[in-house]
Design a protein that fits this description.
about 35% helix; 10 strands; binds adenosine-5'-triphosphate; 4-stranded antiparallel β-sheet; 6-stranded mixed β-sheet; alpha/beta
Amino acid sequence: MIEFRKVSKVYPGGTVGLNNIDLKIEPGEFVVIVGLSGAGKSTLLRSINRLHEITSGEIFISGKSITSAEGRQLRVMRRGIGMIFQSFNLVKRSTVLRNVLAGRVGYRSTFRTLLGLFPKHDMDLAFGALKRVNMLEKAYQRADQLSGGQQQRVSIARALAQEATIILADEPVASLDPLTTRQVMDDLQRINREMGITTVVNLHYIDLAREYATRIIGVRAGEIVFDGTAAEATDDVFSAIYGRPVSEAERLGGKTDEAI
Ligand SMILES: Nc1ncnc2c1ncn2[C@@H]1O[C@H](COP(=O)(O)OP(=O)(O)OP(=O)(O)O)[C@@H](O)[C@H]1O
């Protein structure tokens, strides 16, 4: 379980990123966080693995405080949390396999990983992860030879090789076209269902949020203003989260800004 207890984040300069958040996410949930740009979605997501440090309150992962964790304990907690970024964050000149093996770095000494000495167990995990996202045949290609969608699937495989029990995905499909977007979301959903990995995703398309989430959390000005099922998240609810009517650009199936 991920638990926020009275969590606030104030950025230097005074911007409130999170305002007194209380939140519990149960194992195996597929949570989608929605809200306008600047609402605090990234801050919320990145607080979970301490990519952003919070200002007050406490965050617990499986009952242990990650907020007060240090050194080895923090590293062990962090390696259980996979992170997926909009920009994929792969080493572009390395092979797909090496990128996936990077998920094992938290388990091995720096010396061994620098030399590329990965035991069979790690290789098995890496190949198994690539298989799950249908990327096995690309294992020896360079990451920069792949399409955006394929690169994102490699980053999902890296999180699987990491044996993450939680996956955080910050706008994972924002750089992808509609078809590839669905493939990546389908991968995340399949992994969530088959492996029970708790998944927390920031998205800005409301139809995708409804389609994939088991729970939608609406954020506005650093506060949770909606927390419910996809069925409860009607257009009116989204308008309330956004503080304005939903625009067609917020639907994947809809027109883009330029086309309006
Ligand atoms: N490093 C920073 N320094 C100062 N203010 C920041 C910083 N990062 C974010 N903020 C501010 O905190 C608020 C929340 O930002 P956050 O990135 O969490 O929003 P978001 O909902 O993820 O938006 P987007 O969809 O545009 O990424 C915004 O007002 C933003 O300008």
